[in-house]
Amino acid sequence: LDAQPVTNERFREFTRETGYKTEAERFGWSFVFYQQLAAEEYARLKPNTVRGAEWWCKVDGADWAHPEGPTSSIGDRLNHPVSHASWNDASEYAKWTGKRLPTEAEWEFAARGGLEQKLYPWGDELTPDGRHLCNIWQGEFPTVNTAEDGYAFIAPVDAFPANGYGFYSITGNVWE
Fold it and tell me: Shortest CA distance to 121 belongs to which of 174, 167, 175?
C-alpha cells in the first residue's frame, strides 16, 4: 500500500501518460453528493437521484477531474484523494504503478495500524480528547454537517495524522 491515498495530481499523471479514460468519463456521468451542488442545480437534478438515497445525484459530466460536474475542477484540490474512480479504474492505476490493489484482509490489516480489537485505527474513541483524527460526517446525515473536523467535504490526504503503520486517510474522507 502507498502511505497516502492516490491524489488527484498523481491520478492526473496516470491519465495523461496513458490516455486512460475512467468509467465515469466513458459513461458521461457520475453521482455527486447533493450538498456539493448549488441549490438550484440540486433542484433541477432531484429527479435524477437514487431512490432511498436521494443525496446522490446523477450529474452529467461529473468525473475525477470534474468532481461536481463539468464546471468544477480539481485545480485547487491536487493533494486531495481522487474521487469518481471505480474499482476498475483503481485497478488500472495500480497496474500503471507496477502494483496491485490489496485484498480485503491486507487492507484491514493495514487500516488497523497495529492495533487489535479497536473501533478505529487509533483506539476506541472517535475523537480522543476532542481531537478529530479523520474526516467524517459530523451532524445529522445527510442534512447537517457541522464540519467540526475542519472539512465539510473531502480533505487533503495528509490533513490528519497517519496510523500506527504510517498510512494516512485510511479511515473516512472519500466514500468508497
Answer: 167
Among 134, 89, 93, 86, CA closest to 113: 134
Q: What is the DSSP letter of 7?
A: B
CB 68 within 8 A of CB 36: yes
| CA neighbor of 32 nearest in space, from 2, 66, 5 | 66
Which residues of the chain carry a pLDDT beneath 50? none
* Amino acid in the structure at residue 167: F
Beta-carbon count within 10 A of 169 CB: 23
**What pLDDT sits at residue 175?**
82
**What per-residue string of b and e applies to 17-36 under the rule 16 or more CB within 10 Å gives b?**
eeeeebebbeeebbbbbbeb
Report pTM. 0.94
DSSP notation for 112-162:
HTT--S-SBTTBS-SSGGG---SB---SSTTT----TTS-SS---TTSS--
- Provide the edge-to-edge strand list for the sheet that holds 49-50: 29-33, 53-60, 49-50
Nearest to 36 by CA among 6, 11, 62, 10: 62
Residue 46's pLDDT is: 86
